[in-house]
Structure formats: C-alpha cells, structure tokens
Amino acid sequence: MDEVVVERVLRIVELVPTGHVVNYGTVGLVASCSPRYVGRVMKEFGSNVTWWRVVNAAGVLPEALLPTARGRWDDEGTPHTHEKVSRSAFIDVDDLEELWRTHGIDPGSS
C-alpha cells in the first residue's frame, strides 16, 4: 500500500467531526483513492483513528464492529438506529474537502 495515501486516508478520517459520519466513497474522493482502498486502509490501519465514523453508503458497519460502534455513536450523540447511522449524521464531500483544505496536512504535498 502507498504510505502517503494511507496516511492521507487516516488523517481525513480524523477530521470527521464528533457526532457525524462519512462513507468510504467520500473519504476516497477527498483522498484520491477508491472506496475499496479506504476500506482496506481502515481494516489494516484504522484501529487507532475514529473508525466508527466511517461507514458504508447505507450507514452500516460490519456486524462485528457494530456493538462497539453503537457505544461510540451514543457517546458522541450520533443519530442512529440499532442497525445503522441516520442520514442526518453524514457529512458530504464538500464539507470534508473543506476540513481537509483547512486542517489537513498532506504528507504528499511537500
């Protein structure tokens, strides 16, 4: 895996505000990689970032992660049902790009 892209994905995930989520595709658009690549990064390296804030387009995480994610969502006030995050919790690509532009430090830009 490309270390620069991995770092970019993880930094972007850390910018997702408390109480909100983003889907793999949105992270991929901002990080210039595919949604599958984002999923792979999260699976291999995401345990030290706010992984519960990255869900699929339907607002769902893998079943094994849901119990822990639900607790995090409750703690952060993220609107959700037992199965998935509510649409109102999603941030869009424009908002995530703005967060990346204003707060992200891209290791590939130097």
TrEMBL record:
<dbReference type="InterPro" id="IPR014048">
    <property type="entry name" value="MethylDNA_cys_MeTrfase_DNA-bd"/>
</dbReference>
<dbReference type="GO" id="GO:0003824">
    <property type="term" value="F:catalytic activity"/>
</dbReference>
<dbReference type="InterPro" id="IPR052520">
    <property type="entry name" value="ATL_DNA_repair"/>
</dbReference>
<dbReference type="InterPro" id="IPR036388">
    <property type="entry name" value="WH-like_DNA-bd_sf"/>
</dbReference>
<keyword id="KW-0227">DNA damage</keyword>
<keyword id="KW-0238">DNA-binding</keyword>
<dbReference type="GO" id="GO:0006281">
    <property type="term" value="P:DNA repair"/>
</dbReference>
<dbReference type="InterPro" id="IPR036217">
    <property type="entry name" value="MethylDNA_cys_MeTrfase_DNAb"/>
</dbReference>
<dbReference type="Pfam" id="PF01035">
    <property type="entry name" value="DNA_binding_1"/>
</dbReference>
<protein>
    <submittedName>
        <fullName>Alkylated DNA nucleotide flippase Atl1, participates in nucleotide excision repair, Ada-like DNA-binding domain</fullName>
    </submittedName>
</protein>
<dbReference type="GO" id="GO:0003677">
    <property type="term" value="F:DNA binding"/>
</dbReference>
<feature type="domain" description="Methylated-DNA-[protein]-cysteine S-methyltransferase DNA binding">
    <location>
        <begin position="7"/>
        <end position="63"/>
    </location>
</feature>
